[in-house]
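Session log. Operator J.P. requested a structure for one protein chain; no other inputs attached. Running the standard single-chain path with C-alpha cell output.
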Amino acid sequence: MYTCMVCGNKSKNTKVNRPGVIYHAITKNAYMRRKWLKVFGIDRCYDWQRICSDHFSEENYRPGKKRFLLSNAIPQPYDQNGFPSKYATQSNAVEIGNNVILPSEQNMPVSK
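Structure written below.
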C-alpha cells in the first residue's frame, strides 16, 4: 500500500474509488529530487515514499495509453481540486513551472 507524502491519499482507497491515480516514486536524480522537495518545503525524504498523480498535470506525462512521467516533471503543492495540500509552502521561492531555474541551482551540474 502506498500513501502520498503530500496529500495523504492511500492506494487502498484510490484503487477502488479512483483507479486512475498513480503513485510515483521520488526521482533518484539528485538535482530533480531537490526541486521536487523544494516545492513542498521539505528537506529530505525516503526512497519508499510516493507522490500521487494528483500533484502532476497532464502535460507532465508522455502521450500514450500508459502514463509515464516526463523527466522534467515537477509536482505541484496542490491537490486535484486546486486546493493547497497540507504540506504546501507559503514561500515565494516555490517553483511553479517546468522551465524555471531557481537562482541557487543555476550553476549546478545535471547528473545523467
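Operator note: Helices lie at 11-17, 30-40.
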